[in-house]
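Troubleshooting: if your tokenizer reports a length mismatch, compare your output against this known-good record of 364 residues.
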Amino acid sequence: MLSPICRNRGCVAKQLIGQLVIIVFLTGCSTSSEVDTIITNAPKVTLIVDSTTVGMNGDVLLEWTGYNVNSCFASGDWSGNKGVVGQQAIMALTANSTFTITCTGAGGTSSDTVSVTVAAPPPPTLSFSASPTTVTQNGSTTLTWASTDATDCTASGDWSGNKSVVGQQSIMALTANSTFTITCTGAGGASSGTVSVTVTPPLPPTLSFSASPTTVNQNGSTTLTWASTDATDCTASGDWSGNKAVSGSQLVSGLIINSQFNLVCNGPSGSVNGTVNVTVVLSSTGTALISWQPPTENVDNTPLTDLAGYRIYYGVSSGSYSAPIVIDNPGLSSYLIESLASATWYFSMTAVNSNGIESKVPIL
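Known-good structure output:
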């Protein structure tokens, strides 16, 4: 309601409507009821946002209040009819945005606008390492990486494929110097890291080889012990044979003569040899060491392929022999006969094939 104030040449009417002061100058004095009929309430709307700056995919809350209005609608980076009072969350902002609301009442329209700045996303960070960075031939290394503000990573160089943003991977059997690169990508760009691993040339093999004891009595035994580094296999020869592990021990029994044991170990960078000798002390009385060269042909000069063993005949007179000593190992080439009485002894020897056929006994 306006209250007119009469002055010399007119009346002044005042009323506070919301935050608006309306002053009306009239040409003459009038009653208050006459003034009331020409004044209406002015519309007003206020729009506020809880944050004017957010990160990528950030959210804001808009709140508005209309005065002397009966309808509102949104424009700019939002839209639609709105209540005269309300709030609304705006989700996942990816770009700078402007929000406007316009409200209408009997006295006209009123608008308010707020702006929100979306900060650029940070570039990805990346840590990437290899452990160890120096390996020997066929060695392995472990790659470790971690990235922030990234969505995916890709490997290149001497590895490949899609990788998680955080991870670890073992690289096995490296044979040459290698370079590993990983690139991690996010909304703010990409970040790359590279590590190098040096593969050193293979070391030549080493060998330690011993016998214990190195001196034994007849029919005694010794233990051979060996250990090789940077080798893949070993082979025995001399008075033992066969493939051997790169480290181990073996008992050798029944030694009747001085013996030599050889071992060769092989690796990617070469070979190494070892030899040990074992001395056999012969008995002072009553023994005879018989040695022979294994036959390779039959009497008809055909190859001997089925040698099964030997027979040793002996006695104190030529041609008069006791029951033979049976040897069923065709690989032997010597035999020690013990407990011989003091005399002149005569020895004869035959070969036997797998069918039990024995060569003729020679008379000595």
